[in-house]
Every structure is written in C-alpha cells, then in structure tokens.
Design goal:
By secondary structure, the protein is of the alpha/beta class. It folds into two domains: 7-185 and 267-287, Aldolase class I (TIM Barrel, Alpha-Beta Barrel); 197-262, no CATH class. The chain is 42% helix and 14% strand. It contains 13 helices and ten strands. It has helices spanning 7-15, 29-42, 58-67, 84-89, 101-110, 133-143, 157-165, 175-178, 187-193, 217-227, 232-239, 243-249, 273-291, and strands at 20-23, 47-52, 72-76, 93-98, 114-118, 124-125, 148-151, 170-172, 201-204, 211-214. Strands 1-2-3-4-5-7-8 form a seven-stranded parallel β-sheet.
Length: 299
Amino acid sequence: MVWCSGWKLVSAVSNAGGLGLIGVGSMHPVTLEEHIVKTLNATEKPFGVNIPLFYPELEKIVEIIIRLKVPVVFTSAGSPKLLTGRLKDAGIKVAHVVSSAVFAEKCEAAGVDAIVAEGFEAGGHNGREETTTLTLIPSVRKATGLPLMAAGGIATGRGMLATMVLGAEGVQIGSRFAISAESSAHPDFKKLVCTLKEGGTMLALKKLAPVRLIKNSFFDQVQEAEMRGADAEELKLLLGKGRAKKGMFEGDLENGELEIGQISSVINDILPVSEIMKSLMEEFWLATGEINTAENFRF
C-alpha cells in the first residue's frame, strides 16, 4: 500500500469496521507521526501501522509508534524476531506477513499475535517461492495455530469466504482499497487500474526483490534487461530511486513503478471506502448462505 494508505484511507477503513493500516514504506518519520496524529483525530476505532523491516529509519519509526500508542503493528520483509518482543512489551499487538509455512513457524516461535499469509497474486513485493494464496493458506494453517489472515488476490466477499474455508480467520485486502476514493494514490493511477485485464500485471525484478507491476514502459525495460540476463546491480541502476512515488503518487504512468495485485482485473470502479466495505460484507454473507444451502450441491 506504499503511496496509497495515509490517514484518510486508514481512518475510513477503521470507521467502516475494518482495521486500517498506515503504510510506512513511503513515509519519513515526521510524516508518519503526522499521519498517526491525524488518524487518532479522525477515528476512535483501532488502527495499525505496517512496517517493512528493511526501512532505513526503523528506530525512529518504532519510537514514534510506541510513544503515540499505536495499538497494532504489522511487520513484513524481515525476521519477526526483530521487533516483536519490544512492541509487545509496549502493549502493542503484532502481526507478521509471510509467504511460506516455514516462515509462519518462525513467527510463532518469535511470539507474534497473528500471521498474514500472502500469496504471490498480491501487489507490491512478493515471496520468492511464488506460492499462490489457494496453496499457501492451508499450508500455513497446518503449520500454526495462531490467528491467520489471508492476503493476495482478495477483493470480493466471495474471495474472503474462500480463504476462510481454507483455514483463515480474516483477510488483508490491498488493491481494492488502493484505488478507493480515500486512497492517496494519483487519480490517473486509479483510473489505469480500473482498465486492467487478466495478465495486466506480472512479477518483475526477481534478482532484487520480486514485485508485481503493471505493464508499462518501465516494466518493458525491466523485462528486456531480465531476459538478457542483467545482474542485480544493473537492475538497481534501472530501478533508481523514487520510481514508485513517480508512478503511483505523481501519476507518471509510463516511467513509474506501478504496483497493484492480480485481482485488479476484476476492479473497475473507484468507490468510497464505506461502499467498498458494504459491498464486501453483503457479498460475503450472500455467498455464505449459498454454500449452506444443500440444494446447491447436487452431484
């Protein structure tokens, strides 16, 4: 949710009954503090912060989160041992994002409160194993008894129900909210996402950190470099700095790094969070009723 999930989106999600998460990956510490304070003023409901553990100013971020008493932290892209103990000692609930059952077991050993299992359908950075959500959720469920949230490829009530049938207790949804009315993403990026069809995104930059991107001029450059065997250093130079900001926040749809999930192919409108949440829950309960009706299963 880099460049998408600021205080407006977070407070709207929490006010609508979800758990909004501030995306730290695009924020300097002073900016994060501003967004936390604004979120506290905009909702009385719980909310959280997502911390990529490779973040360069990690210590400053953690100090702000503890000082402002953020109730929940999701950590990702690193070892769950790094911050879990410190955050829990401060009274903060901790969830960690994984892409395999092996890492889920490490999360349990580290003492996290919950696990997010994210399949490679997801937007942004993904696991190197490229395990799909349909395969990942039952595998992680078998490996741990901790509360489990499914992520990757979920943007509908039916998708929510499917992951719960597989063993998840909840879901983490990104792409659907990344193009909501309250998202801080550029309007042109949101409009582009609404036009995507199947195959409109692919994993790229696998020699650095696999990331799912919309196909554009920048993606074509990356694909050409990877096909001729470019090494990690060349790919770093090609990526440069600020590509995601250029694309998703500033609206450069050709030269920017445009991150979104595969499920974007079924999203074709930009709606307020309140309407998205209402639609998700209505479809979830409708689908739940359908599978509980025996006459729908005739063999």
